[in-house]
What we know:
- The chain is an alpha/beta fold.
- 27% of the residues lie in helices and 31% in strands.
- It has helices at 13-17, 24-28, 30-37, 55-63, 103-113, 132-140, 156-159, and strands at 7-12, 45-50, 64-65, 70-71, 75-78, 86-89, 93-97, 121-125, 144-150, 164-172, 179-187.
- The protein has a nine-stranded mixed beta sheet, sandwiched between helices. It has a two-stranded antiparallel ribbon with strand order 3-4.
- Strand 8 (121-125), helix 6 (132-140) and strand 9 form a beta-alpha-beta unit.
- The model is unreliable at 174-185 (pLDDT under 50).
Amino acid sequence: GKVMMKTLHVIDVENIFGGPFQGEALYNNCKELYQQIINIHREDEVLLASNPELFMNLLHSWAYDSETDEWIGDFSTSDLFNLNSEISFGDTLSIFSRPGKDGADRILRERALTKLEKYDRIIVASGDHYFLALCNKVLELRKKLVIISTQHGFSNSLKRIPCEKITFEMKKNESPKTFGYKWKSKIGAAA
């Protein structure tokens, strides 16, 4: 059987799900969308960040199970309803909001850097060149790096990194709750 790789998912939500398709329905379902691209295992940890306007959408998509009508577990928080909200569910999920152009990127990078040692594989879900230093650090530590990006949002500096990459584009279907992929391509060998 396959060896489980403990994975840290670093998700720049607006970068991979933003653009012309932005909207409530999309962000309310972004966990399902992300899981269509890549699996999240129970041992994994997920870091998410966005601007403050999307914080509640992310909280609902990632931390609330609508089928059982329950939140996923005990959480610790720092300032839930201000511009710098932070909420963590154990060691599995942290959601940050930060205002400003690079606010979300900065907190995501900062927190991810403190956690790299614990994981075998780091998934950076962003095409933003802001994450170049983080990606290089992952490779320097000899960890497996996977970059997920939309085709149109993939910066040249990240494209050049020697690692596995997954690109996708979304198309909006008639129903606002369902989103489909035009295509998905994998560059580099999947382990």
